[in-house]
Amino acid sequence: MRGIPWGSILASPLPPPSVLLLILTVLVLAVLVGRPLWVARQRRRLRAQPLPPFWLRILQRRVPLVARLPAPLQATLHARMRVFLADKAFIGCRGLEVTEEMRVTVAALACLPILGRDDSDYDRVRQILLYPDAFVVRLRHQDRAGVVSDGEEARAGESWHEGQVVLSWADTLDSAAVPDDGYNVVIHEFAHQLDDAHGLSVDLEAPPSGHDWAAVLGEAYHRLVDAADRDAATLLDPYGATDPCEFFAVASEAFFEQAAQLAEGEPALYAQLQRFYRLDPARWAAA
Predict the structure, then answer these.
(1) How far is the C-alpha of 83 from the C-alpha of 195, rounded, in Å?
(2) SS3 at position 74
(3) Disulfide check for 154: which of 83, 87, 134, 245 has CB 3.0–4.6 Å away?
(4) Contact 93, 135 (CB under 8 A)
(5) Which residues pair with 130 in a beta bridge?
(6) 135-142 and 127-131 as β-strands: parallel, antiparallel, unpaired?
(7) Which helix (H) or strand (E) holds 271?
(8) Residue ranges per structural domain of the chain
(9) Domain 199-287 sits in which CATH superfamily?
(10) pTM of this structure
(11) What are the C-alpha distances in Å from 267 to residues 18, 24, 217?
């Protein structure tokens, strides 16, 4: 077997800079084009795999909202979960050991908002940080009157712009156990991730005009703010009056958990959410 003539190769003159630049450009383009194709192929393979029976039992026990879904959407949810669990890292905090039950429960709830959309909506999400229960954060808050205050607050969840979602496992279980109260911490925090990706709550503070997304959601937001200021009863959680970002997240919780009531009480808002999520959950109960 003949050896490689390294001496001749090393002695050969280097290509001119323009050729080297061309080679580098081709390599970079190959990576940029090849990686999305590889990711798409991997995701197709994952979607085709059925969920293990153990995972299905977890869904039945922990996520009763899944039982409302028509059979085709349940199959879609399983496919979304496969991709989600392969892509995202779960990190236990404050000594929590992350179990398969935790991963499957969170994945099911997180994937509900993208049932009618695409896995790529969560490409920015990298990690899910799980605490055993509510965690305390230090914050500076400015209310609508401009008053600034410092303090600490117990949180059930947070969504970070850097691609992390922080969740309390106890609150995840509690909010999932009652599928029709309009409160679901996982849906709430992942709605924030969708908001970050698509700018959904931008301009909701502006005076409404027309009947587009910003106008409809802006009007609904201001109605909730007014009701919250008067301590009036509302379908949407008054926490949504905090700011437009929280309004979209709260409205998303109601869209998935109290769809029929939302469609009746806020038909224009429901229609806009239906258009964005590409779903009609008000029909699920009757399916």
Answers:
(1) 21
(2) helix
(3) 134
(4) yes
(5) 92, 167
(6) unpaired
(7) helix 267-277
(8) 34-178, 199-287
(9) Collagenase (Catalytic Domain) (3.40.390.10)
(10) 0.81
(11) 61, 55, 11
